[in-house]
Design brief:
Immunoglobulin-like; 52% strand; six-stranded mixed sheet
């Protein structure tokens, strides 16, 4: 019996992975643009934006639009959540027209998003949400295993459009470096958005050899940090940088023309095996 159950679980996982993989390849032919929308709506006012959905698959699909929340981990990964789980959500302020539609192969559809911002104090903070465009129908398949058990496979697909709402009164923009250290051949910079806006950030680390005076710069990708949120940025030390003692300057550029945030440390890069 135990062997049968183990076989059953392995087959279920294998079938599910195969089915989802095939469906992901199919779903890549369906797209939405843009992938993010920026609203700047005053309290009590209304904002509008358009999303275009394209069906380049070989078959007709039905779609539905709804809204939810998202948050971000310190590593910058998005966590998609149901509506009402994020304190600064604006998901309840938004409606979509149409919220349900069908597209033949090769067709496109414009969706109008309407954001109605309330007049209370909740409208004075930057807020965010995500619009989900889902393939409305579920694909179902049934497989019979050797022991006679039937496995039902259900696959559905959705993709998200990030929505950012910044009220015109929210103008204070500032980021800070709250920690900077060297660990396991990586420089780790921890940032915090202490302002009222969404920070569009660029970072770099500049290493100066305390022996030769040589300067090397390491860059990270640009990214957005949500208000009152932390973000960790990692700079792997390239293998070609020689061992020795270095002064390291970590810089956060968050779009302010007049200032940046920075931190400085000294590190010892040890002799590595491939050198």
């Amino acid at each position: 019996m135990n062997r049968t159950m183990r076989t059953f679980k392995i087959l279920m996982l294998t079938l599910l992975v195969c089915a989802l993989g095939a469906y992901d390849m199919h779903a890549q032919k369906i797209s939405a643009s843009p992938t993010r929308l920026n609203f700047k709506v005053s309290p009590g006012a209304t904002g509008r934006a358009l999303i275009t959905v394209s069906n380049n698959a070989q078959e007709k699909h039905a779609f539905q639009v709804d809204f939810g929340d998202f948050d971000a981990t310190r590593a910058g990964k998005s966590k998609f959540l149901e509506k009402g789980q994020v304190e600064r959500s604006c998901a309840n302020w938004i409606n979509a027209t149409p919220s349900f539609f069908e597209l033949e192969s090769g067709q496109t559809q414009e969706i109008e998003l309407v954001m109605n911002v309330p007049t209370d104090s909740s409208a004075l903070q930057a807020r965010w949400a995500v619009a989900y465009i889902r393939i409305a129908e579920e694909r179902r398949g049934q497989t019979t295993l050797q022991d006679g058990l039937n496995v039902n496979l259900n696959q559905s697909y959705r993709f998200g459009v990030y929505i950012f709402q910044t009220p015109p009164n929210a103008t204070f923009s500032m980021g800070e470096v709250i920690d900077f250290n060297y660990k396991e051949e990586n420089l780790i910079m921890r940032l915090r958005n202490i302002g009222e806006t969404f920070l569009k950030c660029n970072t770099y680390a500049e290493l100066t050899s305390l022996t030769t005076g040589d300067v090397m710069r390491l860059k990270a990708e640009s990214f957005t940090v949500l208000p009152a949120s932390n973000r960790d940025v990692s700079f792997p030390i390239p293998k070609e940088i020689p061992p020795g003692r270095y002064s390291v300057l970590g810089v956060l550029d968050y779009g302010n023309r007049d200032e940046v945030a920075a931190a400085e440390i000294e590190i010892e890069i040890p002799q590595r095996g491939n050198q």
